[in-house]
Specification:
The complex is a heterodimer of chains A (115) and B (115).
Chain A (H helix, E strand, L loop, with lengths): L2 E3 L4 E5 L4 E3 L2 E3 L6 E7 L6 E7 L7 E2 L2 E6 L4 E6 L8 E9 L2 E7 L3 E6 L1
Chain B lengths: L3 E4 L2 E4 L5 E7 L5 E7 L5 E9 L2 E4 L6 E3 L9 E3 L8 E8 L10 E2 L3 E5 L1
Parallel strand pairs in B: 2-11
Antiparallel strand pairs in B: 1-3, 3-8, 4-5, 4-9, 5-6, 7-8, 9-10, 9-11
Classes of the chains: A mainly beta (115), B mainly beta (115).
C-alpha cells in the first residue's frame, strides 16, 4: 500500500541555519509527484513546492528546495537560512496511485526555529 | 480575492445533532475537496467534486454528505454527529486534479467538537 513517512515528529533549529525535513514514500506507481505543505499555528495549509517523478532537476522555490532521491524513495524538504516565521507543521503528500483525486499525507513534522 | 472561505470557524455539537459546514471559493476552480485532520495526523479526504453537479467519495466519507450546485460552493453536511467526527475540517480547491502539478488552495478550517 502507498505510504508517506515523516520520521521527525519535531525539530528545533537555530535561526539562520538550514533545515532538512525528511519524507520517505512507498509507491508502485512509476509516475507520481510529491507535495510539501506548511501549516502555521493559525491552521491554514500553504502549498510550498512540488516535484514530479520524471522531473530532471530538483525543484526550487525561493528558500525551499526538494532533495528528491528516487532510488532511496525520499523527497526531503530543505529550507535555507531559516527564519522565525518558518516555525510550523510541515506535511509531505503524494497522489494515491488508483485515484489521483486523493492525496496521501504524512503525519507531519513540527519545526520550531529558535532565535 | 478571498480565495477559499469556510464558515463557521468553530462549532460545538451535541451527539446526534446535524450541521452544514460551508465552503466557497472565488477562483473559478473546478475541483473542490473536503478533508479532515485529526490531532497529530495528516489530512484525510472525505469527498471531492470535479465540477458543479458531480461529487464522489474519498477515503473517509461515512457520516458525511456533500452537494455541488454551483462552481463556487461545496457544503459538507454532517448528519447525526458522533464524537469520532471531532476534528478540524478543511475545504480546498484547485484547477486540476490532485496528482497533476497543481496547487490546492485551502480554507482556514473549521474546528468541530462533538460532545
Amino acid at each position: 500500500a502507498q505510504k508517506i513517512t515523516q520520521t521527525q515528529p519535531g525539530m528545533f533549529v537555530q535561526e539562520k541555519e538550514a533545515v532538512t525535513l525528511d519524507c520517505t514514500y512507498d509507491t508502485s506507481d512509476p509516475s507520481y509527484g510529491l507535495f510539501w505543505y506548511k501549516q502555521p499555528s493559525s491552521g491554514e495549509m500553504i502549498f510550498l513546492i512540488y516535484q514530479g517523478s520524471y522531473d530532471q532537476q530538483n525543484a526550487t522555490e525561493g528558500r525551499y528546495s526538494l532533495n528528491f532521491q528516487k532510488a532511496r524513495k525520499s523527497a526531503n524538504l530543505v529550507i535555507s537560512a531559516s527564519q522565525l516565521g518558518d516555525s510550523a507543521m510541515y506535511f509531505c503528500a503524494m497522489p494515491h496511485k488508483d485515484s489521483n483525486y486523493q492525496l496521501i499525507w504524512g503525519a507531519g513534522t513540527k519545526l520550531i526555529i529558535k532565535p | 480575492n478571498a480565495g477559499v472561505t469556510q464558515t463557521p470557524k468553530f462549532r460545538i455539537l451535541k451527539i446526534g445533532q446535524s450541521m452544514t459546514l460551508q465552503c466557497t471559493q472565488d477562483m473559478n476552480h473546478n475541483y473542490m475537496y473536503w478533508y479532515r485532520q485529526d490531532p497529530g495526523m495528516g489530512l484525510k479526504l472525505i469527498y471531492y467534486s470535479v465540477g458543479a453537479g458531480i461529487t464522489d467519495k474519498g477515503e473517509v466519507p461515512n457520516g458525511y454528505n456533500v452537494s455541488r450546485s454551483t462552481t463556487e460552493d461545496f457544503p459538507l453536511r454532517l448528519e447525526l454527529a458522533a464524537p469520532s467526527q471531532t476534528s478540524v475540517y478543511f475545504c480546498a480547491s484547485s484547477w486540476k486534479l490532485a496528482g497533476a502539478y497543481n496547487e490546492q488552495f485551502f480554507g482556514p478550517g473549521t474546528r468541530l467538537t462533538v460532545l
